[in-house]
């Protein structure tokens, strides 16, 4: 019986010695690793794009809030500078209204078109867009005991079908020139 020699030059006592096991990964293991990596990468991209989408929506909501607050403060300033009694044209509490605010320099008019709120500062002045993408705009006269307050409720068009929070704002102002309640 002939003895087998191993690669180191030594002899092996058994005629059918087991082969040394090679370290490494098989093709099946490699495919499993690639598929797990692909699933994790897919979830990572989905999470990333969801974060980007939510960040974009948050930035738009913040910009909408800022522009509504600017328009509301301008409206309140116009009412505070009123030189006479304010006149509301249209049914109170309805969407089709025009608020006429007499001032020393002329009359300021706010008019809701159905989608935008327009402002005109003077008889010959052009209409300017005070607020865009408006869903509802209502002006109400609140006759309180010592003063007459004006309340403006505005709701913006939501970007989504069912927003988590309705973009609804309310502003109140009292004219310096008081009318009797």
Task: List the keywords.
1 helix, 181 residues, alpha+beta, rod-shaped, 5-stranded antiparallel beta sheet, 10 strands, 3-stranded antiparallel beta sheet
Describe the structure.
- With 181 residues, the protein is of the alpha+beta class.
- The chain has one domain.
- Helix content is 30%, strand content 30%.
- The strands form 3 sheets. The chain has a 5-stranded antiparallel β-sheet, covered by helices on one side.
- Strand 5 and strand 6 form a beta hairpin.
- The N and C termini lie far apart (124 Å).
- The model has no long low-confidence stretch (mean pLDDT 84).
Q: Describe the global form.
A: rod-shaped
What is the radius of gyration?
Answer: 37 Å
| Amino-to-carboxy terminus distance | 124 Å
Low-confidence runs (pLDDT<50, min 5 residues)? none
* Largest β-sheet summary: 5 strands, antiparallel
Helical residue percent band: 25-40%
Order of helical and strand elements: EEHEEEEEEEE
Mean pLDDT: 84
Instruction: Name the structural class.
Output: alpha+beta
Strand proportion, as a percent range, falls in 25-35%
